[in-house]
Amino acid sequence: MPKPPPNRATVSALVEDAAAAPSMHNAQPWRFRYDTATGTLRLTVDTDRVMPAADPDLRAVHLGCGAALFNLRVAAAHAGWFPRVRLVPDPAEPTLLATVDFAETGPVDKGLEELSPAIRRRHTSRWPFAAKDIPGSARSAVGDAADREGARLRFAGQWHANLLRDLVRDAEGRDGSDPERQGDVERWTRRGDEADVSHDGVPEYAFGPRARSGGAPMRDFAGRHPVRGPGTAAFEDEPNLALLGTAGDGPAEWLRAGQAMERVLLVATVHGLAASVTSHALEWPDLRDLARDPLSDLGQVQMVLRLGYGPMGPVTPRRPLGDILSIV
Asked: For position 103, what pLDDT does the model report?
């Protein structure tokens, strides 16, 4: 049964929650356009925020936008809406990733609605976690979260975790000799006074400490630059790493993977887990192929997640609503 579409204030609140999603280097590569007459919200790629060297096929852009789309669904459920989502609805318009139609009624998804408080509590943590295993109940919960979005989540065994760390080190070495990839990182890191006023990118207060020891695969955003921060720290020797995968590997699957990633992160937050994500080793096609356990049913690896018990990361900046939402 049709009902009046949400008003401007409601849509603005929904998009603000959507924009709390993680994205590669916090580039926030999304734009939303809402048509008040039809009650349809369009999600498109902000092409000014892509990374041509590290993400030439826009896979990471789709993951970030998928995460924002999932937050939107959660916020809509919390507000009592039943949105109908269509992924990549028009092949002739590749920057249009999804449409969300609010003009229909239906049962509110309670599973989504219950995740609403976690949207603002979830923050990427680049800090050490406790040397503590994750109980089976929490592992099952995050695995089920991925399943519900058409993806798979598999925790890495010790040999696989060691391999992933080796692949990250390999990626770091390659990146160090690639000026264009270094340029992508430089463009999206914020140091000094810029870190306090920027609306995007990774500010130095969110870099986390450099690893003095341990096996957590963390990207070094500081590089050779001096930064304000906590210096070095001992990270966990055996981090809890999980791989997120999909059966296919195209734009629609990347959007599903982004939604699954955010659902996993919100469910992890509900269970008291901190998290960071890393795509470092997946940004090189040959390393991405090696990241998958050949005996696993994971499919195509889309993201590596590090989960554990430790401090939530700091709040990172977000773009003003007027920069990401237009209403007509």
From this structure: 66
Could you tell me how far CA 276 lies from the centroid of its own chain?
A: 9
1-21 burial code (b ≥16 CB/10 A, e <16): eeeebbeeebbbbbbbbbbbb
Angle of CA points 48, 263, 197, to nearest 5° = 40
Q: How many helices (H) and strands (E) are present in the chain, helices listed first? A: 11, 13
Burial class (CB in 10 A: 0-12, 13-18, 19+), 291: buried
Is residue 137 packed enough to be buried (19+ CB in 10 Å), middle (13-18) or exposed (0-12)? exposed
Distance from first CA to last CA of the chain, Å, rounded? 24
Nearest to 24 by CA among 283, 265, 237: 283
For residues 213-243, one letter each, b for 16 or more C-beta atoms within 10 angstroms of the residue's C-beta and e for the rest, the string is ebbbbbbbbbeeeebeeeeeeebbeebbbbb
pLDDT of 219 over the 90 cut:
no
Does the pTM exceed 0.85?
yes
